[in-house]
Structures are given as C-alpha cells and as structure tokens.
Amino acid sequence: MLPSLRCKDYYQAQFAGYTRNLAPGAALDECLHDFLDQRPSGKYTQRHRASGLAGVDFWWQPANVDGAALASLALARVLHFDDVISTELLDHLAVHHPDQLRWAIRYSKLFTRRDSPLWIHLKENCTSEQWQTFFGVCERLLLQLEPFEAAINSAERQLQSLTLLELLSYLSVLAYARLGDAGDDPAGIDWLAYERIILRKLKSCGESDFRLSTDVLGRSLRQHLSPMLFPQPGEGAECAVNLEAVGAMIDAMRELIDYERSIDWFCFDSECDYQLQPGQSVIFNKTDEGTLCWQRTERKSQLLWCYWMCRAVDVFAASELAGQIIGSAENHEANQLAYIKAIRSQLYLQVVFGLGESIRLNNGAEVTLHHAMLASELTNAFFEQAYLQPYRRYLADSGDPIAALGRLAFEGLLQGENRFPITWSELPEKVARIRAWTVSDEHPMGDPEAAKAILQFWTSDLQALSEQIKQAPNQPTPRLYERPFYKIGRFSFQFPWVAGRQNSLTAAVNNLRRVDPRRPELRSETERVEHELAASLRQRGFRVVVGYQPPRMDEGDVGEIDVLACLEGVLLLLEVKSGFIRSNGHEVWLHRTNTLRKAARQLKRKSPAVLPALLADSDLRDALGLAISDPSPALHTWVVDTSIELDGEVVDGALVVSREVLEVALRDEQHYLRAFDQDAEEEEAIATLYPDGFSAQAFIRVIERSEVWRGLL
C-alpha cells in the first residue's frame, strides 16, 4: 500500500476512535493534532501525511469541520503542496467553510505562489463577493512588493562586478551613516536589510570571492574604500556611483521587508482584517490588542534584562574583581560593565536554558561559557570606545558621515591602528587578541586553544554559508549579530557598527538554539532546565519529582511528566519547553501553533494520569511527601516556556508561564524588575510578592494572576 494511503487509513481510524467519546468537531481536532504532531510516525514525509489527510472523508461532513478549531491550521499544511488536495474538495470547502479555507490560505501563504494550480483554480471558480474581495486584497499585497523587488534587482545588476568584500565595504560605510537612526537596534529593519543583501550576494558568489590574499585585499580596499575615506581631486567617481547604488538597494530592501511584514501580519495575526475600499488600507487591525500585547512583551523583556543585571551586580560585588582595576584605568569602567554583562549572560543561560560551564562545538572543541560571553562583551566594549564614540564626536563636528569616517580612519593610521569601517586580521592575530581574555589560574597568560574555540563559536564562515544557501536554502542562517566575526578565506573580518552594538545574550541563545537546533547537547540542556527549576521549587519547600513516567492507561502511554511538585495540598504538573529568542510575529505564531499547542495537548493527556498514579504508586507519594490518607491535592497544570512572548496567555486551555517569571516569583525578586535609576522608595514599595509569607497558594495566585508584573506594565 502506498505511504499516503496508509496515512489516510491511520487518520480515518483515529477519527473513528475519537468519535466514540467526543463530539464531531472535537474528534476532528484530536485527529488534526495527530497530523500536526507528525503522526503516524515512521518513514512518512510531510507530503505523505498531507495527502493522506486530504483524502479522508471527514472533510465532506460540515458538522465535523464547523466544530474543529484546528481545521485551518491543518489545511494550511496541506496547501503547502500543489498536488495533494483535490479541486473537488477545495470547491466544497470554498462553499461550505469559506472562512476556514481563507485562513488556511493566509497561514500557508498560498496566494504568494501566483502560479500554483490551486490558487489559479480558486480564482477562476470562486465568484462570490467575499471571495473576490479576498482575491483583490491578496493581489494588492503582492503588487506592493514589485517596485522594490525591481529596484533591488536593478541595483544588483549594476553592482554585479563587485566582489563580496567590496560590497561589504560599501555596506559598512552606509551602515555607519545610519547609526543615529534605527540602525542602533540590532533587531531593527536596517540590520535585516543588510543581512538580506549579504545573503543574496552569497548566493551568487563564486570561489574567487573567497580567495583573499594580502595583495588582493589591499588592491580592493585601495580601489573601493580609500577613495571614499581619503578623497583626492579627480578620483572617487566610481566609488560614488557604487555607493549610491548600494544605498538605493538598502532603501528598497528596507521597504520590501516592511511590506513583507505587512503580509506576515495579514497571514498570522488573528486581529488583522481586510477590505477593498477606495482610499483605505487593504488590511487593518480590528482591535489594538495585538499591538498592545507586543508592547507588553517588549516591556517585559526590558525589565527582565534589568532583573538579570541586578543579579549579576550582586555576584560581581561579592567577587574578588569588585575592588580591582580591570585593564587600563581609562577603560576600567567599560571593562567592569563587560564583566558584569558576562556574568549576567552566564546566569541567564544556565538557569533558563540549561547550559553547563562549557559549550561543545561541532568540531569537538569546548569553550568555557564565561569566557565566550566575556570575549563578546569585551569586544563590544572595545568597538564602542575605539570606533563608535570617536565617530559620533567627529560626526557632530562635521555633520558629514563619510568625512567623520575618514577622520576616524586617519587618526587610526597615526596610531598604527585599523579604524576603517570594516576591520580585518589573519586568524592567528585575532586569536592572539582574544587570548588575553582567557586568563585563569590554570592559564595565567591565557589559553590559545580556548581563544581559538571562542573565535570559532562567534564566527560565520561566509564560504560555508554561501554553499549552504545554494544547497539548502531553507536552513536557518545566522543573523548579523549572532556570529559577528566573518571568515573570508584566511581573514577574519568585523564590522565595528555590528561588534559595538551587538546583543551578546540573544546572539548566544540563538547561535545555539536557532542556527544550530540539532546539537547533540540539546537534550541534556533541556534536562538541566527541568532540574534547575526543580531546585528552585525545592528551595521553597516543594517536594519535586523530575521525569516521572506514569503507568500506561487505557489510552496508551501518556509520556513522561517533566516536573511534578507538591506543597501544602497543591500539586503542580509542569511541561517544560525550551527554544530560542524570537524577533517577529511569524516566529511567535509558529511557536504558539507548534510547540505550545503540542505542550497543551500533552498536559491534557497527562493530567488524568496523575491522580491515579498517586493512588497506585507509593514511591511517587513518598517522593512528593503525600500520605495515602491525605486528600487528593489540587492539580495545577502549566506550560513552562523559556520564551517570554506568550507568558501569561492561555494556549489551547493551558496557561503558559515564562521560566524567568517563575524564577522571579520563587526568589521573590520583583524589586529587581526595575530600571537602574528607579527610586529606592519605589523599590521598597514592591519589596515582596508575599506580604503574608510564602505559601503554595500564594505562589499559585502570583503566577496565575500574573502578579509579578503588577504595577510594572
């Protein structure tokens, strides 16, 4: 039997089983959960499963689809393929379930594939006013992209003779010029534009782009960078033309990304509605709840940054370094802040993401976590002091960004230092600089092997990235700030405007979790997240069991329970999820509809197994401090998420709680969620979350009512 037919039989049997106990819509939802969770397991592709799901008869019964909350989400997976759903079923859904089909089209972005036979069929056969409005909106959204795509293609043709290094030189000059703008934000649209331009160039790079020698490097910079920084009469015309073309490409790319964000808003935000009215925007928010929610998330992130910095200050103050001059006297303050930030990052990465004292790299080398973060923070401090601060002074004097860059580069030459908009050195020289940051009792002069490992951890090999983009374009690629050393040939390059503005903590998390999600250490890190949480709960008196496997029930194996914690008649069942730090609404939507949806379903399956397990398993009762005569504890089920975006929200019936919020609540440190310039009186006013003392009930109230954020958002 064909794999797709086996999948079809599986979904049909699952649905029939669920209908014995559930209403038709709920039964279909359970079946769609199975599909979304990539069942049946085994050697089936996404196409096999999608084809099998689309072939099941339950789609033809309106009562099933009307009551299924997951119908649009599952159909979106089906619509990723042009040849797995019949046009007959498509027509049926368009007539009987138009809203759900339209959301499936939005989720799948089917309308962006203009040549898709499914999309062409729908446009030819759906003639109602509602469908015609929908088609018109989709077309308008795509038309908005076209002039910017054309401008980018035109600029690329004009600049195609430039090597990768030469393009990066012009890009760096213009990025400096935008620093006073949104360019200060590594998550801002300018940096996204630079990343996209670099990735597009890498896609077309040949081997010669990566064959760099000292002579080639010198000639390239003399031809393309020096005439801009040190202008001479009658020279620089070619550079001016190239710089203008790169600037036009950046502007067009920024606009393109902005309109692409509008499409993502249309596709993934339930608050986004649409219309075709003369003089009106085709898409608009029904309410401002989505915007307010994102603003609350940003505010939470800012306050949690303060929280971890306050904890790091405490650790630093208790250390031997607190009374020492770090580096030179003039750099001491910046270096001290870099040490505190490195401590902050280490605390955060170990508590929230379960990292150990060291990180194993793909080549087997290990880098000490503290040294990796310290190197990044000291690099940041160095580029801020040596490059960005003088540039801002020179810019204030002249008002001309390129004149300011020329003065910065000239002052550097007088001091024997490279202060160009793009810096480079051969790998041994770069390792020698980093070595000074790896001093320890064991290596008083620094550890060259550790320095090499640190450099590798933070380096993006652009030749390897070029090959990846060509061969596997859908694999994640590092963002500019996630790996701020760029290897081209035997040289290591850095952009001061990146290195001086880098968010090292987000970079480290996403380096490990987003760019390299299949690291073998990930499982042990996730287990450490659970054990760290268990330790925090035990300090508050909870009895805790990690990784409990309930006995099999009639419904089969419900799976391992991450954390069970019991205190004062309260029993917590916690499902722990660990991911990366998200930067846009689409990533948050994927997290909600994949990871958190699955976690909520796991809780729904596991919670009925807990109380019977307490009755049957005396070892479990003993571990949780319960006697057989004790009444059944009150069960609370939470998804504990290392992300902050959905903290406090209910997803598919399950409360999502940020791991960081649990940390603040268990340690009773709401007073650390404050800006550093906040009054001591204000700090006193929020001194404790538990004015009547800590108790299990009080802790439940603080979490389930989001009292950690009371008065702060």
UniProtKB/TrEMBL annotation:
This is NERD domain-containing protein. It comes from Pseudomonas berkeleyensis.
